[in-house]
Design goal:
Blueprint (H helix, E strand, L loop, with lengths): L2 H11 L12 E4 L8 E5 L4 H10 L3 E4 L18 H10 L2 E4 L2 H5 L4 H8 L6 E2 L8 E10 H9 L2 H4 L4 E3 L5 E7 L8 H6 L4 E4 L4 H9 L3 E4 L2 H5 L2 H9 L8 E4 L11
Parallel strand pairs: 2-3, 2-11, 3-4, 8-9, 9-10
Antiparallel strand pairs: 1-4, 5-6, 6-8, 7-10
C-alpha cells in the first residue's frame, strides 16, 4: 500500500494528537519508497532489530519506543542513534514510532496488559491521566496468590517480578501502568487499588509505597510492554485487507539480564 495511506490508517486508530508534550511519536526516519509491502513491529529499535528487518525484507519498522527522543545537532556513525540512522538509510528502511498514544488508546498497551492478566472489565483511573487502568478480581485473594497465578500464564512466566509491601495482604482491585509508571501509585490507592503493577520502580518510590500500605509490583519496563507488536496487530486488524504484511519481531530486546 502507499506509504502515506499506511500512516493515515495508523493515525485513524491511534491518533498522534494524543501524545504527551515530551513525546516524539510519529515518523522518525523516512525512506525513498512510495509503497510499503512489509512492516516489522518491535518494542525498541536496536542494531539486531535492524538486521532482522533486513532479513525479512521490511520496508518500514514500527516501534513503540521512538528512535529519536531529542533533537540531533550532529549525526555520527559511532553514536547511538547515529549508527542506526546510517544503517537504516543504507538499507532504505524507514521508522515510525507510536509511543504515548498507544499507551492511552483503547486496546493499546494498558488494555491489552489487563486482558492478559484476565481482566475483562477494565476502567480508567478517575484522574484521567490516560495511562493507568484498574480491574476488580471476581474473588478477593492474597497478593501472593494473585502473582503466583500470573506466573502460570505464558506471557508472565518469564517475567522477573519484584515488589514492595505485604503480598500476603488480601486484594480485590488491581491497578497497572505499563512501562514506567511508579509515580502513579498514590493515584492507584486513591482509586481503591490494593496492588499496583508497573515497571522501572525506583528505590525511594518503593520505600514510600511501603509506608503507604499498597503492594507495588515491578514487572520491568520490557516485561510490561513486550506485548506491543501483538497489541498493535489487534487494533489494526479491522484494516487487514488494506494493510501491508505486519511481522512481529522475534527478538528479546530486554537490555537487562538476570544471573
Amino acid at each position: 500500500m502507499e506509504k502515506k495511506d499506511f500512516f493515515k490508517l495508523i493515525d485513524k486508530h491511534i491518533p498522534l494528537s494524543t501524545q504527551d508534550e515530551w513525546d516524539n511519536s510519529g515518523l522518525q526516519l523516512d525512506n525513498l519508497k512510495a509503497d510499503i509491502d512489509k512492516v516489522l513491529l518491535c518494542l525498541d529499535v536496536t542494531g539486531e532489530v535492524i538486521d532482522e528487518a533486513k532479513e525479512v525484507g521490511a520496508d518500514f519498522i514500527v516501534s513503540h519506543h521512538p528512535l529519536l527522543f531529542s533533537g540531533l545537532k550532529t549525526i555520527e556513525n559511532e553514536s547511538v542513534p547515529g549508527k542506526f540512522i546510517f544503517d537504516l538509510a543504507a538499507a532504505d528502511i524507514g521508522v515510525y514510532s507510536i509511543h504515548t498514544p498507544f499507551d492511552k488508546v483503547k486496546g493499546g498497551n494498558n488494555d491489552y496488559f489487563g486482558n492478559l492478566m484476565g481482566f475483562t472489565e477494565i476502567a480508567d483511573f478517575t484522574s484521567a491521566n490516560g495511562f493507568c487502568k484498574y480491574g476488580d478480581l471476581k474473588k478477593a485473594t492474597t497478593g501472593r496468590e494473585f502473582l503466583k497465578g500470573l506466573k502460570e500464564i505464558p506471557y508472565f512466566s518469564q517475567i522477573n517480578i519484584t515488589y514492595s509491601g505485604d503480598i500476603d495482604d488480601r486484594i480485590k482491585r488491581v491497578g497497572w501502568c505499563t512501562g514506567s509508571g511508579s509515580e502513579f501509585y498514590m493515584e492507584a490507592k486513591e482509586n481503591g487499588c490494593q496492588m499496583f503493577i508497573t515497571g522501572d520502580v525506583k528505590h525511594h518510590v518503593a520505600l514510600d509505597a511501603l509506608e503507604s500500605e499498597i503492594i507495588l509490583v515491578d514487572m520491568g519496563h520490557y516485561g510490561t510492554e513486550k506485548l506491543f507488536p501483538e497489541a498493535f496487530k489487534k487494533i489494526m486488524e479491522v484494516e487487514e485487507e488494506k494493510l501491508p504484511q505486519l511481522i512481529s519481531s522475534k527478538l528479546d530486546t530486554n537490555p537487562l539480564n538476570v544471573l
